[in-house]
Amino acid sequence: MSMKVEWKKLGEVCEIGTGSNNREDACEDGLYPFFVRSQEVLRIDAYLFDEEAILIPGEGGVGDIFHYVNGKYGLHQRTYRVHPISDSIKGRYIYYYLFAYFKSYIYQKSYKATAASIRKPMLTDFPLVIPSLTEQTRIVGILDTFTSAIDNLKEQIAQRRKQYEYYRDQLLDLEGKEGVEMKTLGEIGDVCMCKRIMKEQTSNNGEIPFYKIGTFGGKADAFITRELFEEYKSKYSYPKLGEILISASGTIGRSVVFNGEDAYFQDSNIVWIANNETIVTNRYFYYFYQIAEWKTDGGTIKRLYNYNLKNTTIPVPSLSEQSRIVSILDTFEASIHNLEAQLAERQKQYEYYRNQLLTFE
Q1: How far is CA 9 from CA 122, 125, 301, in A?
Q2: pLDDT tens, 212-252?
Q3: Do 6-131 and 181-316 share a fold?
Q4: 77, 22 contact by CB (below 8 A)
Q5: Is the pTM of this model over 0.90?
């Protein structure tokens, strides 16, 4: 947009400093919000500041975390406060402008385009575009509307997840109930895994994604050839459509439904039970894995071995009861996914309008 604007360094229109609290000062039922070096907001009994400010952690999540506050609060000694001292600028406008441009600014100024921490001069020298107060009010009003809608969707998702987890735990609490057999996973099916893939058989790009424990459930960063894939798929164990893949290390017991797309999985770290669906359906397995208590030899479990899986007990109701449970939980999951899709779309809209509104010629 073309309009009359003024350029100022952030340090010219704001007081910039840090807090003096330590994380140990936090208390569960404190009277005031306590901002530390993360997205998390703690509580504290005594406040340091009573003001409008934008708060930015000096370490951790550099350039990604910004808090806006207007009132009393506590502040960690490695978290910066940016307090407006000029009548020509609104704090809420600064918050949105920093969110849009500060990260790219500090990365341009940093060695090898990375930044492990923020130094005060990065903030004081940050160039800030200042339109009229009327225009700032208009911009803030639009972006606040989007932010409110996003926050509302996040709250709906959080509440729906709580409901889902409550009903899931209630529905799967079946031990000792009539018509329910307790079986081990080893009685239901075999523990399976893909054939071992050697590092030299992978590449950074290729035809078939190869999922390791670090990329399981995400985006693959290694690939194998289609020729190798077809050979191993025909000769060795390979999951069937709908079977549930389980992480045997890392995030123990994390489960992903195999969608049938061509892919290969790291042996021993990603496994599945080749179950008999006349006893337990795959979808019932999917929900059970979320609450499973994996058998161990004592101590902290670092990985699931075959015997851990085989000896894990699962309540097995009738197929009709499994279907009823799955139907209820599927409804909750679909509702959550729908809200998440709405959230993603609203965030895209917010980013588009933020970029348009905060671009000045």
Answers
A1: 10, 5, 52
A2: 999 999 999 999 999 999 999 999 999 999 999 999 988 88
A3: yes
A4: yes
A5: no
